[in-house]
Amino acid sequence: MQPPKSAVCVICGCRPATTQDHVPPKGLFKGLATQLITVPACATCNNGSSSEDEDLRFYISMQVGKQTPGSAALWDQGAHKSLKRKTRLRTSVIATAREIRLTDARGECVSRLAVEVPAQTYQTVFERTTRGLYFHHTGKILPPSVSVEVAPLEGVPDVSSEELRLLQQHAIAGEACVYRFGIAEEQPESSLWLYGFYGTFWIMATTGDDTNTAL
Ligand SMILES: [Zn+2]
After folding, report:
1. Which of 30, 41, 212, 11 is nearest to 125 (CA)?
2. 40 alpha-carbon distance from chain centroid
């Protein structure tokens, strides 16, 4: 299936699309040879959040650890370098780091270092990702007037639950990213998105006003 085309940027919905933007950002797949999803975007949207992309990669990498080749590459080839280079990121991490216990994808309790992810970081990155993937899957641009709310989840959501089993599931680079989404039939601007990285870091995005009717 050919990906849908658009002359207008599918992220901001207004400027001409002159580039192809990766959703989710390609920095999250460091060291993995894989086919990533791109969508038509303007240069402003494409380049506008590269600093947030890099910060988010660091936070995700820190939380998922280095147990698998993919997550180890994410840290060694990406996140660790960012931490050394970015003073602001380092200061924020040191100020908020704490140890937490959480349940991983295999149901085992693991210990992780958690840091507070600034809300603006994941809001910016996953609003862009959600608008991009919405277009990728529906061929329609989510209107700029429709809001996208992003919230990180603590622990692994119960994906065998009835509501979440109804969502379409997609994977990028195997374990690296699994995402699920559902779009309300009668209200196509209402949708719910669940992103999981390396089976450990989960984040949810909802679009439209009354998101409770999305499922
Ligand atoms: Zn744009």
Report:
1. 11
2. 18
Expressed in angstroms and rounded, the spacing between residue 112 Cα and the centre of ligand 1 is 36
pTM reported for the whole predicted model: 0.84
Contact 111, 101 (CB under 8 A): yes
Alpha-carbon distance 179 to 167, whole Å? 9
| 70-116 pLDDT per residue, tens | 888 888 888 888 878 888 787 777 777 777 777 776 788 877 777 77
Query: What is the whole-number distance in angstroms between the Cα of residue 19 and the centre of ligand 1?
Result: 10
Give the single-character DSSP code of 37.
P
Prior bond of 24 cis (ω within 30°): yes
Report how far ligand 1's centroid is from the alpha carbon of 208 (Å): 19
**Distant-in-sequence contacts of 188-194, Cβ < 8 A, 24+ apart:** 188/138, 188/140, 189/142, 189/143, 189/146, 190/214, 191/134, 192/167, 193/126, 193/130, 193/133, 194/153, 194/157, 194/159, 194/164, 194/167
* Residue 191: pLDDT band with limits 50, 70, 90: very high
CA of 18 to the centre of ligand 1 (A): 9
pLDDT, one tens digit per residue, over 7-32 is 999 999 999 999 999 999 998 888 78
Cβ neighbors of 168 (< 8 A, separation 6 or more) are 137, 180, 181, 182
